[in-house]
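Researcher: Going back to the complex we discussed earlier. I've cleaned up the inputs and rechecked each line, so this should be the final set. Can you rerun the prediction on the complete assembly and write out the structure?
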Amino acid sequence: MTKKSAKFREEFLAQLKETNPNQPEFHQAVGEVLCSVTDWYLDQTDMRKNAVLERFTEPDRSIKFRVAWEDDDGQIQVNRGWRVQFNQTIGPYKGGLRFAPSVNESVFKFLGFEQTLKNSLTRLPMGGAKGGADFSPKGKSRREVGRFCQSFMQELYRHIGTDIDIPAGDIGVGAREISILFGHYLKLTNKWTGVLTGKGCDFGGSAGRTEATGYGCIYFLCHMLEEANCEIADKRIAISGAGNVALHAASKAIELDAKVISLSDSSGTLHIKDGLDHEMLDKIEEWKTTKRESLADFKTGKGVKFLSDEKPWSLECDIALPCATQNELEEKDAKKLVEQKVMMVCEGANMPLTADAQQVLRDADIPHAPGKASNAGGVAVSGLEQSQNAQRLRWDADMVDKRLREIMKTIHADCVENSPKRKIIDYRDGANLTGFRRVADAMNAFWHS
Ligand code: NDP
Ligand code: 2IT
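Model: Rerun complete. Updated structure for the full complex:
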């Protein structure tokens, strides 16, 4: 970044922090993108006149609502729901719903902002949004989750639609929640439209959507390895998380003969020294996804150790795949990865690295793919689900997988093409520049709408 750009970035961020106080995740996401796009943006006289960057960093709208629901004791509980419709320039709003007690407006704004760039990277006509609620499905009965989802949709339904906004899943929102939300949308509107993605395959869902984020992440990783003249077979991969993204990334990596040496959850890390096999992965999936239990209570076998309250980043590995949540990999973790000479880091989660952790990897010339590029497979197949719903057709799993592979390949190629010339490919700058320029060009053409 030039001196002039660094000054512009600093002033822009100071202004953003003043107008959006107490939103550290949002500041972090914008700050990172500005590192990549400012040099280019400062040369765009017309765009600056049309305040494209100022418009790009202000969500179209942020909807906040009350969600009241009855627990199993007959007590009414009150939670807060959000939908941040961030940017509709290149297509209807699209992005997941997260149910977790830790969410707030800052988290949804950072996720909506990132989603706008990610969706642009897929080259599909999708704008960016994110939403959810500060509700924890943990420890709730199925009936409680059901009542919560119905009450949540009771408000959300008036803000969404196939040409307006199409939500999907994210942390705490999987097939069970999407089914209930979709069923209630039908009841409220009497209209069958593909208004949510990630639906069951029997009622409009796409083959391969459940697997798409994790599989897509491994397809992206394979391109990164190819770029470095390496291959995935026999590489030791440390994965964090044990949810949708982590489990499917692990499954595809095992299929490609990699050695998956860890999974983790909020209770700690499961270390599988000689690598997971499909049989054990199936057991973990049942434990986490069907039974909804903690990894701490998973019965381990020979060669498997549970490391209570620990993250996977001090384990010896060749590749790190953070697939749990934002800022899960901090500076000290990145230093450990550098010490053990990790080859590359590929994000399955959204913004799992702190800014300091990213800098440690950059200083050590370790390639690092940002989630907006490497985890875009999920939303890409959501886009394909929308196409199938619009056509009233169902594509088979092979066709969806073929399209997913093509999309991940194109995203990788775009990142490489737009990466500044450094010793290694700068995936951060390549992804941010590609995603931003597409939306910014369109916003500029819109003048100030
Ligand atoms: P899930 O709810 O299926 O799984 C989340 C996993 O992460 C769980 O194992 C959870 O553990 C763990 N986790 C959550 N918070 C923490 C924490 N603070 N410390 C340690 N572990 C934690 O979510 P997904 O797999 O769908 O999402 C994971 C990430 O991937 C998120 O960042 C999401 O935004 C991103 N993503 C998801 C996509 C999708 O299609 N689902 C698409 C693109 C990105 P526990 O069970 O103990 O809570
Ligand atoms: O972060 C993400 O890309 C998702 N949670 C998936 C969004 C979607 O619309 O499929």
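Model: Worth noting: The first strand starts at residue 61 and ends at 70.
Researcher: Good, that matches what I expected from the previous run.
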